Sequence to fold (128 residues):
Amino acid sequence: MPRPIRSAIQTAKRLKSGLRIAPVLALSFGLAACQSQFQQPSDLLFAPTFSKSRQNIPNTYNTPYDCRTFTGTGWKGIAGGVVYDFDRRDLISQAGCFKTQSECQAWLAVMRGYIDVPRFIRCNPYSA
Fold:
């Protein structure tokens, strides 16, 4: 017994229904991949990207970028301002010494992400 030939309209309808399912499957696989980090969909929307608590702000002290132990010439970066952590308002000031200006600018870019109201952000030539 010969099989009936599907019309173009029937094929288009089946393709259309398959294309509706694809985004749902992609979203479900994406959420399943994030399951270890996020437990509920609201965690995706309302979780902070990074913590602004005082302990998590980048600190250069006792690192290779500490100006107290820096030797030679380079660049000194100073970043200061106000950090808001919900109802808390912290004034911070950090300094770091770097061999190149690009390292100093990269550090300032990270600090700009933490400081909500910058008062002073600058890289100056420095020699120890």
Notes: The chain has three helices and three strands. Residues 91 and 99 are 27 Å apart (CA to CA). Residues 8-33 form the longest helix (26 residues). Helices lie at 8-33, 41-46, 101-114.
